[in-house]
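Collaborator request, handled under Task 6.
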Amino acid sequence: MNKSLTSTLTFQLKPDEEGERLLKEGQLEARRVVNEVFRLDEENYDWDKIEDVVQDQSSHVKNTTQRLFDKALVVLKRHYDENDYGHPRQEYQESYPIRMNHGEGYKVEIDGDEIEYRVSALKYKHVRGTLHGSPQHLERLKTAIENDEWRVGTAEVVNKYGKYELHINVTHKNAEVADKRDATTFIGVDVNEDCVGLAAVKESEVEDSIVIEYPEVKKERHEFFTIRKRMQEAGQSSLESEIKGREKQFVHDQLHQVSRRVVDWAEQFENPVIVFEDLKDMRDGIEYGTRMNRRLHSLPFAQLQDFVSYKAAWSGIPTDKVNPEYTSQECPNCGHTSPSNLQGKRFKCS
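Structure tokens returned to the collaborator:
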């Protein structure tokens, strides 16, 4: 089965002093553009007119301004669709990502064994250099540049821990993913608050099982929540978005590591399909009190599933979802279903 797959590749830019200054100015201008979109929307401007206004005033190239407008529009649409309380806030962090299209906003080219980049930090102001990154990401980008089956897409200049990075989206237009109907090994995935349990079942026999723990996510999220609560009590709301950003980045990095381990484990089996619980309406009806509800409703169950599915597809492994009712209590060998089959985080048929 052919499938279009998009991957985000991360590279370090390592610009000189002048390049760093230009990138900082470009990120400040990106922040200003997004804030202007929010401000004009709050003043009831038509969205088509907002785009014209921000493009006329922007110091970015037209294509980059359009990408920034689109990014702000996604936030506004989500706000109105979900009827969120309060209008989207202005962005205050200096390191706001510059979003660009390949060609006009940025360009990458192969030069011998290296990949050279050119980033339009602002109109007529370019930053040039050599990309640095993992051998796997550099090789995948070279493939995307040279192969017609691939496409080099949008990218963002990101300031992470004081260092500039270029995050590039590349798409394999016709990647091969196995048909889930041909699977002979079923990898059951049980996502919990501090771990994920995996069981490989072939026909009616359990081949193997493993528990991958990630207690750091639960611990760090609780600490970030405590920090935000104290900041709110102290009236330091201006720093709250920065703390949220740090929390989001931490969880994002942890989930990428966990999802990679899940797929690596699944790859050892013959014709696997990774099977998740269908999380739709999963939290409906959960009422365990304020503290427990906050923990359950904020857990990144769906995000972890998305990361696993994404990485599995790149390895040619299909994924599927099933109704989760009683699946954790049912024995795959004899069909016996009982809460007594669960012993802590382990399953043993009673």
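The cover message to the collaborator said: "The longest strand covers residues 163-176. The helical segments are 17-42, 47-57, 62-81, 135-146, 215-233, 240-266, 290-298, 301-314. Please let us know whether this matches your experimental observations."
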